[in-house]
Prior knowledge:
Layout: H1 3-11, H2 14-31, H3 38-45, H4 49-56, H5 59-78, H6 87-104, H7 106-113, H8 123-141, H9 149-168, H10 178-191, H11 198-201, H12 203-212, H13 222-240
Helix pairs in contact: 2-3, 2-5, 5-7, 5-8, 6-7, 6-8, 6-9, 6-10, 8-9, 8-12, 9-10, 12-13
Amino acid sequence: xxxxxxxxxxxxxxxxxxxxxxxxxxxxxxxxxxxxxxxxxxxxxxxxxxxxxxxxxxxxxxxxxxxxxxxxxxxxxxxxxxxxxxxxxxxxxxxxxxxxxxxxxxxxxxxxxxxxxxxxxxxxxxxxxxxxxxxxxxxxxxxxxxxxxxxxxxxxxxxxxxxxxxxxxxxxxxxxxxxxxxxxxxxxxxxxxxxxxxxxxxxxxxxxxxxxxxxxxxxxxxxxxxxxxxxxxxxxxxxxxxxx
Length: 244
């Protein structure tokens, strides 16, 4: 095997991809998106520019990969999901994690949420949404959710992202971190009920909770579960919107 082939294989190896991501994340963190040129990344990672295109396709794909890498690295350090934790407390922890990530990694956060592309979601955002949806499912199953899982997740995303961008726009020394707590509690109050008692919390919470736990029963066929799930979603939506 000649030296050229050895270099090319080395530049296309998983180690080269990881090295590129690490170097790109550092450039992004210290210099912002403007510093993340393919030339700068290639130089920092010790590869040729064409290697970046072979491994990632284009610069947008590289940005998405760097955002996913940074988000997962942060999540690994900070996340501590406890299955036994109260689902509303877990939601609070998730909000604080989201805001903390955004303030610690403004460039990556902006790639994930600051440049919306209708119909396209970045891999990093997909990961974040998956975590949020799991929390919504636990909350729904507990009987504490009074709006649909989708609406609740979207309200959390809207409130959390708006809070981060608002705080980032403030001079760092003047950031009112308590603003995040106020926003968090306002959103949680709008999507949850104070009691898991279905009769007390209303038909919406009962329908949402039953829909979230349908997969735990074997009494229905797959088609019957799908049909019941659709009915329960309609009941929950009409009740939450005040439609009788």
